[in-house]
Every structure is written in C-alpha cells, then in structure tokens.
Design a protein that fits this description.
single chain; Aspartate Aminotransferase, domain 1; binds pyridoxal-5'-phosphate; 15 strands; about 20% strand; 13 helices; alpha/beta; Aspartate Aminotransferase, domain 2; four-stranded mixed beta sheet
Length: about 375
C-alpha cells in the first residue's frame, strides 16, 4: 500500500501512549478553559501574565485594524512593512536596549531563520541539550557544525570552546562560534545561567543567542527577560506567550539585522505579521513594562504551590511560571491528568519526544490570573492523585 508509513507510525504512537489529539477549546479566559462543554481551572496556559482578553490590548487591535488593516498585504521587503511594525520594533529596541529588531511570523520561524543565518560553514553552533525543536531543526539543517552541551553545563561548554580554540590555533583557521540556549526552558521552567553564558561568550569571542520565549515578560523588573541579567547579543522572543498576541521578534545589532533582511529566507519570503496585531503587541509590551505586580503575583503563587505540595512530589522549583512535576512513565502521566480532569483541573501531559524518554510530566503553569485558592486546590488534588 502506498504511504503505508503514515498509518504504521500513527499505530506505533498509539501503542507507545504518545498519540496526540487536539482539544476543542470553546473558551479560554483568565483562570478557566472550557473544553467539550466543561469548564476547568487552567494550569496549561502560556498566557503567563494574564493579558489575553485585556481590554486595552483588544482596543489597540481594533484601532490597528482600522488604521493599518488586519493584513500586511505583502512581505516586509515588498509593501508589508508598515508604521505599526516600525513602531513596535522601536519599542522592543528601547525595552531590551538593542540597536535593531525584526519581526517574524512565529518563534519557530525566527529560531529557524537565525540558526540558518548564523549557520554558515565557518560557524560552530553550541546548543544546550534541552533547546527547543525549532533551534535544533534550524541548526541541524544549516551549514554549520553543531555540538550540544549537557543541559546548563557551562563547564562542558567552556571545555568545548577551549578545545575548538586550540584546534583553530593549531590549524591556523578561524571559527565563528555561537552559544545557543533558552533563557527559561520550556518544559522544565529552569533558567539558563545567563550571566555566565555571557561571560563565556565574551571570553571566546562567541555570540550569545537566547530564545526568551518563556522569559520575556516574566523575568526582570520590566519583563525584559534575559536582557535584564546580562548583555545578550541576540534575543529571540515570542509574542504568543506572556505578550498574549502572536508572532515573534529578533533583537540584535545592525549588521546581523541587515544580513537577515538580505539573506534570511524565512524573513524575505513570508508575509509580514498583521499590522493590527503589531499595534496590539505594542500596547501589550507597554503594559508589561509598567505592571510589575503581574510578575510578583507569579512569584508568590509559585512559592505557595511549592509549599503546599507533599514531599513525595518531585517538583522542579524555579522563578519562572513553569513548574514541572516529572512522573516518568507515559501511561502513568496520562492517568494522573485524567484524574485531575475529573476534579476540574486542566493539565496536559507532556510526553516524549517533547521531553526525554522516561521523563513524562505535568507542566504546571502558574499565571497572574490565578488566585491563592486555585493553587491550594491544585496542590490538594495533586497530593491526592500522585501517591
Ligand atoms: C522555547 C520555545 N521557542 C520557540 C517556540 C516557538 O514559538 P511560536 O509558538 O511563536 O512559534 C516555542 C513554542 O512553544 C518555545 O517553547
């Protein structure tokens, strides 16, 4: 039979308890999500700051649509680059103290684009082992040499860079190195040692590239993410999580931005993001900078969760919104999620290949929309169903 691999691979997914289906979300707002006519307390949302449905952002979206249109009607290099895009780029540059910023359709696309741009044959990319799929795919399909260092193991990264420098000296060659990591890791919620990575990059004349998808908005007194910790050469941030719109940005120096405009296929051959959304994103970023209480609330609720969970629960504690409870086995994790659903809690099981084998988990996201009573209830339910 033609294309037999399609059904064979799906059957294998089912057999390994890795089969995935989409849920019909009727409504998602604040602390709740309604799925198949049932309302749940939502602990799987990436709307960390609780900004989705914010009246001022919605108003900016409407205003943006009226002034600039819902659609860019072209790629950025043709006629798609409007005042709304420029104004958003400028705000991001001011926010992160970077000279230039470019907008992309998604974080996935931006990561791919950058790994390709920096993936010249003269380059060596060093990726943290837990880097997002878009970074790994981009790096592996680029022309660069790729090495992955153990998760957050900066000593191993140092050794790799030192070895490479010794080889370059021996053979009188010049290698351009790029260190790639996430600011906050998507599935564990722990942070990279940004200050140390920046120091190592400087020592080895390497560039530091950070994917701040889960740090932007949440880390820093103005939500600047990793840029609040150290000077980062290139920052990628998504709009679809704490910023609560859609799309992504890359902030970097003028030379790299110019290079991307001229050579990045993801940038050149793609319609610019919706100008209405760019306008709404600009408003969201203004709110994020001023409303520090949202970050404080995440920190307080996260502490509350850690204090209420039983000692038996393996919780990876950290200062982000993401708190992983590793269960291990896929079937056991699905079973826990099912039991939590029966108690009105929505938590999606995260399974391989999204996370390494035998590390299936609950990925709990604590947001600024939650209340103390939600966290207390969640902790009670988890303590009861994980025995
Ligand atoms: C670390 C990380 N980088 C990049 C992305 C992709 O961003 P987007 O959803 O905007 O494509 C994600 C999304 O899940 C992510 O977790």
């Amino acid at each position: 039979m033609a294309f037999e691999f399609l059904s064979a691979n799906l059957a294998q997914q089912k057999q390994r308890a890795r089969y995935r289906v989409r849920q019909n979300v009727a409504e998602q707002s604040g602390r709740y999500v309604t799925i198949d006519d049932k309302r749940y307390l939502n602990f799987s949302s990436n709307d960390y700051l609780g900004l989705n449905h914010h009246a001022e952002i919605n108003q900016a979206l409407t205003e943006g649509a009226e002034r600039f249109g819902a659609c860019a009607s072209g790629s950025s290099l043709i006629t798609g680059y409007s005042y709304a895009h420029q104004a958003l780029e400028n705000d991001i540059c001011d926010w992160l103290n970077q000279p230039k910023c470019l907008l992309f359709a998604s974080g996935f696309s931006a990561n791919n684009a950058l790994m390709h741009a920096l993936g010249h044959e003269s380059c060596q990319l060093y990726l943290d082992k837990l880097s997002h799929a878009s970074l790994i795919d981009g790096a592996l399909t680029s022309d660069a040499k790729v090495k992955r260092f153990l998760h957050n193991d900066t000593a191993q990264l140092q050794r790799f860079l030192t070895q490479q420098q010794a080889l370059a000296t021996e053979y009188d060659t010049n290698i351009n190195s790029v260190i790639v990591s996430e600011g906050v890791f998507s599935m564990d919620g722990d942070q990279a040692d940004v200050a140390n990575l920046a120091k190592i990059a400087q020592q080895h004349q390497a560039l530091l590239y950070l994917d701040d998808a889960h740090s932007i908005g949440v880390i820093g007194d103005k939500g600047q993410g990793s840029s609040s910790i150290a000077k980062v050469d290139i920052v990628m941030g998504t709009f679809g999580k704490s910023i609560a719109t859609s799309g992504a940005f890359v902030a970097c120096d003028e030379l790299l931005a110019d290079y991307l405009v001229n050579f990045s296929r993801h940038y050149i051959y793609s319609t610019a993001i919706s100008p209405a959304l760019a306008w709404a994103t600009k408003k969201s970023i203004a709110i994020i900078q001023h409303e520090h209480w949202r970050r404080e609330k995440i920190a307080e609720l996260s502490q509350l969760l850690a204090s209420k969970l039983s000692d038996k629960i393996q919780l990876i504690t950290n200062s982000s919104s993401i708190h992983a409870i590793v269960i291990g086995d896929e079937i056991a994790t699905l079973e826990v999620c099912k039991k939590l659903r029966e108690k009105g809690i929505w938590l999606t099981a995260i399974r391989p290949p999204t996370v390494p084998n035998k590390s299936s988990r609950l990925r709990v996201t604590v947001t600024a929309s939650h209340e103390d009573k939600d966290i207390n209830y969640l902790a009670d339910c988890i303590n009861e169903v994980i025995t």
